[in-house]
Structure formats: C-alpha cells, structure tokens
Amino acid sequence: MIMSTSKNDMPKHLAIIMDGNGRWAELKGKNRIHGHSYGVKAVQEVVEEAVQLNIEYLTLYAFSTENWSRPQEEIGILMKLLVNTLRTELEKLLENRIRLNVIGNIQQLPEIVQSELEYVVEQTKNNKEMTLTLALSYGGREELANALKQLACKVKDNLISPENIDQSIINEHLYTQNLPDVDLLIRTSGEKRISNFLLWQIAYAELYFSKVLWPDFTKKHLHKALISYQKRERRFGKTSKQLLG
Ligand code: FPP
Fold first, then answer.
1. Which atom of ligand 1 is nearest to the CA of 24?
2. Is 105 among the catalytic positions?
3. Which domain holds residue 31?
4. Is residue 181 among the annotated active site residues?
C-alpha cells in the first residue's frame, strides 16, 4: 500500500515515545550514552520527514519525570546532548519553519538547558510549518495534578465555580493547552506501555508499537506506522454506519 500524503490523511498530531537507546548501545557492547547520541540522529530524520509529510504537530518524549532516577552521569550527558542539539539544529528549525515548544516541569532542568530552550523557542515562535514539542521532565500525572491545583486555587478565589469545570477548562490548564489531541502515538523498542505520557491527550489516539530500537528508527519505519494509521477506522465511539452517513 502506498501512503496517502494529503493533509487530511495524516495525523494532525503525532506523538512518539522514543525507547530503546540503552539496549541498542548494549547490544553493540557500547556505553548507553552512545545510544542516546545515535538517538539524536533518529530524531533529526523523523523531524525532517514529518515536515515533508505535512504533519502539523510532532511531540517527542525526550525525558520523563521518572528519568531523574537514572545515574547522574547519564542524566548529565543527556542534558549536554540536548543543549548541543538545540544549538546545532536552530538553523535547520528556522529553514524548515518549525516552531519549538516545550512541555513538562521545565524549572527542574539545569539553568543552561532552560536558557537554551527559551532562546530557541523565542527564535522559532513565528514558524508555522510544524510545531515540534519536546516533553522534558514530563509526567502525565504530574501535569494533571498541576491542572487540578490551579483549578482549586481559582475556585477558592471565586474566579471559577465548580459547576463550570468541564473538559475544555481542564484542557486549558494542561501544558498542552495549545496543542490538539494526539491522533497517533508511536512507541519503539517493543514495549507496550504508555509510561505516563500525555495521559489525557491520548484518549482517542491510535496506538502503534514498533519493535525497532529508537536509534534504528528511520523514515521507512515512520511510513509503516503512518500506513497502519491510515488503514484504521477512527470511530470516536460511533458506529461505522454513522461515520458513513
Ligand atoms: C529512551 O531510551 C530514551 C530516552 C530516555 C531519551 C531520549 C533522548 C534522545 C533520543 C536524545 C535527545 C533528544 C533530543 C530531542 C535532542 P532508554 O535509554 O530508555 O533505552 P532502554 O529502554 O533500552 O534502556
């Protein structure tokens, strides 16, 4: 089957859990860090291909709240990799008209990462081709707890009444307030878990699990996931007949 590349047939919002960097390196008898470096190459390829394919929103799970419990050395190198990548990729983001966005508990990140992120977000803020969101120090439950805390404060201050709390108000208090719901979620490395990623936003997402380890994930694998997505019927709780009518 040939993939349809029209905007209507593409997921508007594609999210990816990039998993398997460590195993990829271990299989090669190398340090886990080596896997993360090659993981950056896969990020570059997938981002470029997503723009070519007219995908409007791409969200990557780059560092979870749980990842803070990894060895300090690995965390430090991951942060360095992030800063270096942001520096070297800015030109390409501008060239491809990609806007960088960040979600997560950003204050927890080292100062240098925060300032580099702020700079690239500011430089790319007017780009309209695609929004690339990096989830950093991100956890879905933490995001929901934060939203509830903000809403509780607003109720306490009489800015909002409990009866008025609905799904769209909850949405407005999430990190993803400016993003549409996820249409397709891909996870690599053969694991079939969500791992606290975008819990609210994936309510109706199609899930696609690939056995490929993230550093080996290429545009060919992305195409395979998109073809699978295009073959599925998304009913959002309706019947097939209702969708046709
Ligand atoms: C999962 O593999 C990957 C991560 C925790 C980090 C993802 C980061 C990158 C791909 C590089 C930096 C990203 C950007 C956007 C520049 P794992 O280490 O959990 O692998 P394992 O499950 O095999 O141990």
1. 23
2. no
3. 8-140+182-229
4. no
